[in-house]
Amino acid sequence: MPEKSVKVEREAQLAVVSINRPDQHNAINAALLQGLLTIFSRLKEDETVHGILLTGAGQSFCAGADIHEMRQMSVGEAAVFAESGQRLMFAIERLGKPVLAAINGHALGGGLELALACDFIVAARSASFAAPEVQLGIIPGFGGTQRLSRLVGKAKAKELIFTGDRISASEAYQIGLVNRLYDDHELQSSSLELLRQICSRGLVSLRLAKEIIDAGYDIDLATACFMERDAFALCFTTEDQKEGMGAFVEKRKPQFKGR
Length: 259
Fold this sequence. Notes:
Largest sheet: 6 strands, mixed
Helix content: 40-55%
Structural class: alpha/beta
Number of helices: 11
Radius of gyration: 19 Å
Number of domains: 2
Mean pLDDT: 92
Strand order of the largest sheet: 1-2-3-4-6-9
Shape: globular
Oligomer: single chain
């Protein structure tokens, strides 16, 4: 089964998804892409899962695509591989639940693209990042040319992609690629605590905020603000809004139900 290359563990209402090919530095092959797509599809439908942490088993988050498999591809097979990768990235973005990437070790090539599809990235201080595809005679194929430039700016994205140079977690934090840095031994626990904190908020409002931020990013400001207005008003049809405001007035902790 493809899912053997992916490990899923539950932490109460959170799911920890680990890329599980440590002997191959968690390199991405066709089976892994399908396994991740299957798992994320299941998690989207599982109402008991409120948030997902994506990380890598072993010493690396993901060292990129499996070059041994990829070098044998025809033009048509390469197009299918890229399309499969892009389908996975969109599935992660459109999950409707918070998805954090916790980077242990290397996030290279397709691994970086996978992290970019998450809502944001946290990393161990020893982590490193690169888009080294040009050194292999190719370019990023899972959406990296587009998501990286939107996150760190066009010029910085061009520098990283044109050179293929590896950068440290500290530099990734400085350029806005990484949101938070943790000591290596604290990465898992601190990432889960952050995700747990996020998912204690109103689940409907979290989903709407995610959708509006993503949908509005590439359109004109006025249209995006109209979308925000409508989503804001929609919140007032939910039980979570009534519970959240009621709890504030009553000076108690809200008990959100995601409805």
